[in-house]
């Protein structure tokens, strides 16, 4: 059963972008003379909160020093951070192995493509433009990003939003994720889910995923199978996805 649509998360899934996000947050804090710097262990914990504005708000709850003057500026700080992030991405961003290949294969086969992410739309546009070129957004039939739904992952809202606009049942689609929150959101919408853990999500709980793989694989660089379907394959292809769905 060839899927009718492939639905991709963005950060950590399409590309390893979380370090750029962390850098942009820290540069913003420094520019605003705020006494915070998120190191990698702290950022890993903060990633349990989906959404940049929500992440800042969560952090402020535990930071009495300077928090009072920043709490009313969350949207402003996030906007400044987004500007820094998009500039970093534009300077050079590469997709994870197999992503561009699978997107090309899907387009050639008439399989629809969609985005389901909690990151803001300018971040999506910057990454896709830098990695796939001008007009990359038109490759996707539906883009669900940022605040288009009231509840962010692990709530299933963003996937339900995308499915409604694709006008397809969840059983005909496959989601691609990298985190526990993402998997919970996709499974909550009834989607078979392929997981490629990122640098901040290795060791997360991916219970219920159809397959857990190091990446989507390339002819010269096969993926490493971690769990679930895909042990006998070397790349995520439409044919492989069809076989995995049928055997699930």
From TrEMBL:
SUPFAM superfamilies assigned to the protein according to its UniProt record, in alphabetical order: HAD-like (SSF56784)
GO MF assignments: hydrolase activity
InterPro entries: CbbY-like (IPR044999), HAD-like_sf (IPR036412), HAD-SF_hydro_IA (IPR006439), HAD_sf (IPR023214), PGP-like_dom2 (IPR023198)
UniProt keyword terms in alphabetical order: Hydrolase
NCBIfam families found in the cross-reference section: HAD-SF-IA-v3
Protein name, per record: HAD-superfamily hydrolase subfamily IA, variant 3
Species for this entry: Rhodopseudomonas palustris (strain HaA2)
Biological classification of the source: Bacteria, Pseudomonadati, Pseudomonadota, Alphaproteobacteria, Hyphomicrobiales
């Amino acid at each position: 059963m060839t899927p009718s649509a492939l639905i991709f998360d963005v950060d950590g899934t399409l590309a390893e972008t979380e370090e750029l996000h962390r850098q942009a947050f820290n540069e913003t804090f420094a520019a605003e003379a705020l006494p915070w710097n998120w190191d990698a262990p702290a950022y890993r914990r903060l990633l349990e909160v989906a959404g940049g504005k929500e992440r800042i708000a969560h952090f402020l709850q535990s930071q009495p020093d300077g928090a009072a003057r920043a709490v009313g500026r969350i949207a402003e700080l996030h906007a400044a951070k987004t500007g820094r992030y998009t500039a970093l991405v534009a300077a050079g961003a590469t997709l994870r192995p197999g992503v561009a290949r699978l997107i090309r294969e899907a387009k050639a086969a008439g399989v629809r493509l969609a985005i389901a992410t909690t990151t803001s739309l300018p971040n999506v546009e910057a990454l896709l433009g830098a990695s796939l070129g001008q007009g990359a957004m038109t490759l996707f039939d539906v883009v669900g990003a940022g605040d288009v739904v009231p509840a962010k992952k692990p709530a299933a809202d963003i996937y339900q939003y995308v499915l409604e606009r694709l006008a397809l049942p969840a059983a005909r689609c496959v989601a691609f994720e990298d985190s526990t929150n993402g998997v919970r959101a996709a499974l909550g919408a009834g989607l078979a889910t392929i997981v490629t853990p990122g640098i901040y999500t290795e060791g997360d709980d991916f219970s219920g995923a159809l397959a857990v793989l190091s990446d989507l694989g390339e002819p010269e660089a096969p993926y490493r199978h971690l769990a679930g379907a895909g042990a006998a394959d070397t790349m995520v292809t439409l044919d492989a996805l069809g076989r995995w769905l049928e055997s699930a």
